[in-house]
Amino acid sequence: MKAVSPPRTGLCPASSAACQRDSGLSNHLPAGLRHGSPRHGHMRPSSSSLNRHRMQAGNRGPGRTDSEIGSLLESGEMGVSPKAGGQPSAGAATGIRPELVAVSIVYLVQGLLGLSRLAVFVHFKDDLGLDPAAVAFYTSLSYLPWMIKPLYGFLSDTVPLFGYRRRSYLVLCGLLNCVCWLALAWTSPGVWATVTLLVLGSFSTACADVVADSIVVQLCRGEAQSKAGSLQSLCWGSAAAGSVASAYFSGSLVHDHGPRTVFAVTALFPLLVSAAAAAIPEPRVLPEGKQTLAQAQESAAVQARALWAAVRHPAIYLPTLFVFSWQATPTVETVMTFFQTKQLGFSTEYLGQIRLVGALASLAGVGVYNYGLKATPLRTIFLWTALLGTGLGFTQLILITGTNLRFGISNEVFALADTTLLTVLGQVSFMPVLVLASRLCPEGVEATLFATLMSVLNAGGFTGQALGSALTTVFGVTSDDFGHLPQLVTFVTLCTLAPLPLLRLIPPASTLAAAEEHGRKDG
C-alpha cells in the first residue's frame, strides 16, 4: 500500500513502505518529505483493493503474446483496457462485498503493525546499544523481502496452494508473521537474530501485500485516473486508519511496558489477515485442488513471456526508472529520531504522540489527494511536491539549531507542526506513484508486474536508507555528536531535487487519456 512500505513497522518497507502504509520500515516519500518525521503510511510498499464478483485468477486463459502486449502498449493503452465481458469496473467497488472487506483488512493490519515501529527502534538503540548509522543499516535490511515481490506475485499467479491462489497465501503469511513477533517477544535475540526475525516478518507482510495488490489493478484497468485514485485512496485510507490506532498506543506501551510487550501485542494483528482470507469467495483452481507439473510449467511460461513483453517496453520501464530515482534519494530520519531523544530529550511516549499526529496527517493527505488532486496530471503533482518538499525539508534546520526557541516555539510544538506539514505533502506525493503503477499493468500478469513495480520502488527506498546511513558516517554524526547534523540535513534535502530532470519519463496526460478512452470503448 513503501510502503512502501517499507519496509513499511519494524517488519516491512513500504511502510511507513513500504510500505508507506505504516507496515514497517519502508518509506515511500521523497527524502525532503521524510526528514525527522516518523515513518507512516507501508510504506507499504503499495496500496490496492479488490472487488471482483468472483476470483478468476486461476482461470484467465492463455493470456496475450509478446506482440499483442507490445502493440497494446504502443497504442497508449498500456494494459488498461478491460477484457471483453471482463472485470467489473471500479465503480462496482463501492458496494460492500466480502472480497473488498477482506483486502481492506489486509491493509488495516499493515497499519496496525506500526505499533511495533517505535519498539523496534528502542530495542536497537537501548537493548542492543547501536548507534544511528547501525540502526539505519539494520532496519534497511527489512526492505530486502520487498525487493523480490515479483517472485511472490509469480507464485501467486501460477502456483496455487491447496487449490487456491489467494486465500491460502494469506493464511500462511498471517501465521508466519505472528510467529516472528512472538519470537521477538519471548526470546532475547541478538542483533542478527533480531534482523532475521524482522526480515522473515517482512517477507510474510510483503507476500500478503502482493496478494492484495494483484487485484486492484484489475479494477483500475480501463478506468479514469480519478476512479483509479479513489480505489488507491480507499485502501491507503484503511492502512492509515490502522496507523492512527497503533500510533495512539505505541509510545505509552513502549514507555510503560517495554518493547517485548509491544512485540507480543503486535503478534495478534497478523492473525486477522489469516481470518480475512476466508471471506474471499475464491473458487478452487481445480476441482480436486491439484495441478499437474505440465500445467504448472505451461502456466509459468505464459506468465514469464507476458511479463517480459511488458517490462521491456519503454512505456513501462521509463516511468519505472523515475519511480526508482524518486525513492532513492537519501533519508536521515533515524538520525533525527536519535537527535530528538538524546539531544532534545523527547520521551518514547512523546515520540508516540508525534507518530499519532503523523498518522492523522497521512490520513488527511489521502483526503487531499482524493478530493482535490486525483484529476491533476501526475507530472504536475510530482513537480510541485518535490519543490515544496525541498523547502519544507529545510525546516529541520530550525529545530536542529534551536531557532524556534528564539521565537517562543517549543521543540515539542515545532516537531508536531513540522511532522504534520511534511506528512500531508509526502502522502500527496506518493498516491500518484500507486495510481501510475496500477495503470501500467497489462492483463494477465497483474500480480507479477505490479509487484515488480513496487519492488523497484522498495529498492529505491532501500537505496535511500543505505545512502542515509553512509552519509551519516561520512558527516561524522553519532549518537553523542550532532555537530555536523545541519550540514547532513542540508545535503540530503537538496538531493530531493535530483529526480526532477527525469519527470519527462512520466507518460503525459494525453497518453493516459487516450488509454482511458480506448478502455471505455472496449468495455
What report would you give on this structure?
With 523 residues, this protein is mainly α. It has a single domain, classed as Growth Hormone, Chain: A. 63% of the residues lie in helices and 0% in strands. The chain has 21 helices and no strands. It has helices at 66-74, 98-112, 117-127, 132-140, 149-158, 167-186, 191-220, 225-257, 259-266, 270-276, 293-311, 314-328, 333-343, 348-373, 378-393, 395-401, 403-406, 411-439, 446-474, 485-494, 509-522. The longest helix has 33 residues, at 225-257. The two termini are 27 Å apart. Residues 1-94 and 512-523 have low confidence and may be disordered.
For the biggest sheet, the summary is: none
**What fold name goes in the CATH topology slot?**
Growth Hormone, Chain: A
How many distinct beta strands? 0
Please indicate the percent range of residues in DSSP E strands (runs of 2 or more). Answer: under 5%
Q: What's the CATH first level? A: Mainly Alpha
**Percent of residues in helices:** 55-70%
Determine the number of helices (DSSP H or I, runs of at least 4 residues): 21
Q: What is the first-to-last residue Cα distance? A: 27 Å
Structural class of the secondary elements?
mainly alpha
Query: What is the rounded Rg?
Result: 21 Å
Mean pLDDT: 74
Net shape? globular
What is the name of the CATH architecture? Up-down Bundle
Poorly predicted runs are: 1-94, 512-523
Estimate nothing, just give the exact number of structural domains.
Answer: 1
CATH evolutionary superfamily: MFS general substrate transporter like domains
State the order of secondary-structure elements, H for helix, E for strand: HHHHHHHHHHHHHHHHHHHHH
GO cellular component, one term: membrane
Pfam families: BT1
Protein name: Folate-biopterin transporter 1, chloroplastic
Region (Disordered): 1-70
